[in-house]
Amino acid sequence: DGGITQSPKYLFRKEGQNVTLSCEQNLNHDAMYWYRQDPGQGLRLIYYSQIVNDFQKGDIAEGYSVSREKKESFPLTVTSAQKNPTAFYLCASSPHPAGEQYFGPGTRLTVT
Amino acid sequence: AQSVTQLGSHVSVSEGALVLLRCNYSSSVPPYLFWYVQYPNQGLQLLLKYTTGATLVKGINGFEAEFKKSETSFHLTKPSAHMSDAAEYFCAVSVNAGNNRKLIWGLGTSLAVNP
């Protein structure tokens, strides 16, 4: 089955540690996205990539980093510089930039 | 700035009643419009989309939405609510972002369905 996988579903880290969230897709989509979701704030775009080896900052990129070395993979690193990292993180992909996005199941990150 | 407004952060209906979730957008160009549904602790699922053509769009699970350019609206409806429709619903519009495009999201509407 084609789709987007995110792992793990739940992730716990201590403050001051970097953590990498995985996102893999087998839909052959060029564009991929990372969002952060907090209660009452909808979806906020962290980073997006429309082709391999290229990515752009979204609205809340500070404290995050990404890479896009393969079409299928778009990992997100939450660094210790991110002041409030506890959130639900969603990865998405799209067959073309203007079109609909398909979402993974999400990773809930808790930092204490 | 382009934006999406979802009127009502919480909507409650009785099972079998009409569901109406409101979405208004601001866009200087003809938009692509989307509705998504999210169940607790899950990702978002596309319900329906408008790109071009017919302004009444049918989606999954019996939902439909109508694009009204004069009102800059894209309201989501379902004639008869089911308990399984209880979820969070998001409206989104595709906009230009420099040389790229991205989705602008509404803040969501939480739908409760009462027996």
Could you explain how this protein is built, in words?
The complex is a heterodimer of chains A (112) and B (115). With 112 residues, chain A is mainly β. In chain A, 0% of the residues lie in helices and 50% in strands. Chain A has strands at 4-7, 10-13, 19-25, 31-37, 43-51, 54-57, 64-66, 76-78, 87-94, 102-103, 107-111. In chain A, strand 9 (87-94) and strand 10 form a beta hairpin. Chain B is mainly beta and 115 residues long. In chain B, the strands form two sheets. In chain B, strands 2, 4, 5, 9, 10 and 11 form a six-stranded mixed sheet that branches. Chain B has a five-stranded antiparallel sheet with strand order 1-3-8-7-6, with no helix packed on it. In chain B, a hairpin with a 2-residue loop joins strand 9 and strand 10. Chain B is globular. The termini of chain B are far apart. The model of chain B has no long low-confidence stretch (mean pLDDT 92). Chains A and B meet through strand 5, strand 9 and strand 10 of A and strand 4, strand 5 and strand 10 of B.
Short description:
Chain A has strands at residues 4-7, 10-13, 19-25, 31-37, 43-51, 54-57, 64-66, 76-78, 87-94, 102-103, 107-111. Chain A is mainly beta.
